Amino acid sequence: MQSDLYNIGQAANASGVSAKMIRRYEEAGLIPKASRSLSDYRVYNDKNVNMLRFIRHARDLGFSAKQISSLLSLWSDQARSSSEVKSLAVEHIELLDQKITELNAMKSELTRLVNCCHGDARPDCPILDNLAQNKV
What's the helix, strand, coil split of the chain in %, to 5? Predict the structure, then answer.
């Protein structure tokens, strides 16, 4: 069965990944280097496009490039155990929870500062004063 072949623009449209990101994923080794046509254009097949869709979905879920590389390896390994995949996903959830906690703390502090600011024509501003405090 012959698979469809795509140029980079068609692969981008079919996968939802920009041509620029496809090139980056190739350079980073997330996907194999594309075959080349006689006129030296990149050529992708259905397997490549499916990998790009996989990567896009994993990126949408916030996985890092390193995590995606691990997920791709697990995806292609038919002898894998699902516990490996679940472990990676659970680790990612823990990182997301940590980020959510950090974002909520930032939001609370910024909300407090906004509530302290009069937002009028006066030059004094607790938001700027707080940012200038050089806290580490």
Answer: 65, 5, 30
